[in-house]
Fold this protein.
Amino acid sequence: MGQLESLDSDEGLARRRHRHWYDRLMMLTDGVFAIALTLLAAGIAPPLTHGMDLAQAWASVAPQLDVYSLSAVVIAVFWLAHRRFMAMILTVDAPITVITLVLLSLVALIPAATRLARSTAAMTIYGGLVVAIGLTCAAMWGYAALVADLVSKEVPRSQRWYLFALMLVTPPLFLVLTAALPHPSSGAVSLALVALFIVGWRMRTWAVRRLWPDKVNVDPT
């Protein structure tokens, strides 16, 4: 016990403070993303009418599952992006903390925006929220990697710019591809989103390995 206390005191206040900020910010981030994902599922209202057959019940729930899957993929993509960035950021300062809090405030709005997204007109608001989250995430990475240089030296400058550009382009492209489905049938949106997620993830992984073969372990996801 005494040895552990000695190691803890020898760490230094500045190093301890930065480690504490980093850990608490990650805990808050994971919690907000998890709660947002949970509230999505809680917002699905199953049919309560007695005497409905399976086809009628599915027709009632399917549209809700479509918008649920849309927002679930959005949350997953941004959580993975934030996790990937934070794995390369060595320490957090005040600007990163503030930008992350803005990011989490926007993510927390996704369940409410999902309920609005069931109408065509409100999709504009939903799309704006997704783009705003993407811009905020890009701002966090751009500041850490290109301005303050808080990223590991193992991450080359070209890869930093690539990830910054990818974060700017992905949200609008994702929404355009989703909106390109003309009058999709029930369940089509969910299948399309899964396909887009897998294809996009594999393309990004392929690009990283092709452009930076000696830096694969820096960005494994």
